[in-house]
Amino acid sequence: MIQSIRGFKDIFGKEALIFEKLEHLLREIFKYWSFKEVKLPILEKTELFQRGIGDDTDIVEKEMYTFLDRNEESLTMRPEGTASVVRFLNEHKLYGQDRYLKFFYIGPMFRYERPQKGRLRQFHQAGIEIFGLSNPLAELEGMSVLNNILSLLGIVDTTFYVNSLGCESCRPSYKEALFDFFDKKEELLCEDCKRRKIKNPLRLLDCKGTRCQENLERAPLISEFLCSDCKNHFDELKELLFLYNISFEENPKIVRGLDYYNKTVFEVHSKSLGAQSALCAGGRYDSLSKNLGGYDLPAFGWAIGIERMIALLSSNFAEEEGLDFFVLMIGEKAKREGLLIVDRLRKANFSVEFDVFFGSVKSQLRRADKLKAKKTIIVGDEEIEKGVFILKDMQKGKEERIELNILWKGDFGKWSF
Ligand code: HAM
Known about the structure:
417 residues, eight-stranded mixed β-sheet, elongated, 37% helix, alpha+beta
């Protein structure tokens, strides 16, 4: 039997239910914040991610699903949404029409990572991207909508870690200081960090190895290197977060695995997620659009992992919602009447099921219980003759006789759930 691909997962049952509710809620909230949805293609030209995310990043170096199509063009299954949103915005010249743009997207992303709990090769993200604001109001807008989503969902066990990565004018001297610092500790570094030291010493701050972590204790801090523009930006952001009562911790080790960020970066972690504790992450990327050949456009955004949200919400949700009605039919005449009742109730937007195999009364009742029906409508040939049916409350076990006419008049008011 053919099995699914490692790291690619079927979403069904309770998870599918939470996914659907989550998507609905996210769409509603984004709408209130005036974010417009963009449904992006899953395939893009490989160059978009190479230039957008950065050639030296783990994602581009070893995690992309890249292949040549039948026309020998190199295509990639999107590993993230930000570069695609920027491509979309420039391609449709949207910035020419409005100087302040806010988009959201929800959909699958693909990364060839080592699968483990909370880490998949096909996973889903919901993300927002805000364009046109170089001041920290963009961060406030983005982080407050996120804070709102988390509190509406009751996801409270989280920490917002915030950092500034500086800009093109102050970051090089910080990188140099890091290089010098780690150069003296070369023999203590893991193999990955030896490579990172040369390619991008910032990435060393992100190493999870215990020995490298110890090395980090005395490493120089970016805060000592920020230019006045970056420092003011960061200070103002912190003030705005206080204003909105969004709690956060400054964390100089947040450096992110994508190259497009400048100034603000942030990650939201939850201890309940275990080793893969990052629930949401993002930051400012003022040069990405220009680097991709588009508008010179300041931007800020984040993306949240849907599977990780589902894992956090799983205990708050019941298995599957029960039915409004199960229609139990006994006898040939009752079958016809019963099928009409099913149709009538469904058209009135009730959730209704019946036993398509028309089993014994016992087995039909078992099915009603299995489907968690709130009420069962019992129709037998005898009842039909008398123009009634039996309505059984499945929780209380109480039964009442009701005139069939009521159904045809559509008088369901008293049954509303
Ligand atoms: P990212 O940190 O790579 O950022 O991913 C954001 C979130 O996606 C993570 O915090 C995590 O919840 C989820 N995620 C990432 N990889 C996996 C995986 N292999 N399995 C399950 N969940 C995963 C970005 O993608 C940026 N585009 C965020 C951004 C938007 N920055 C600016 N705008």
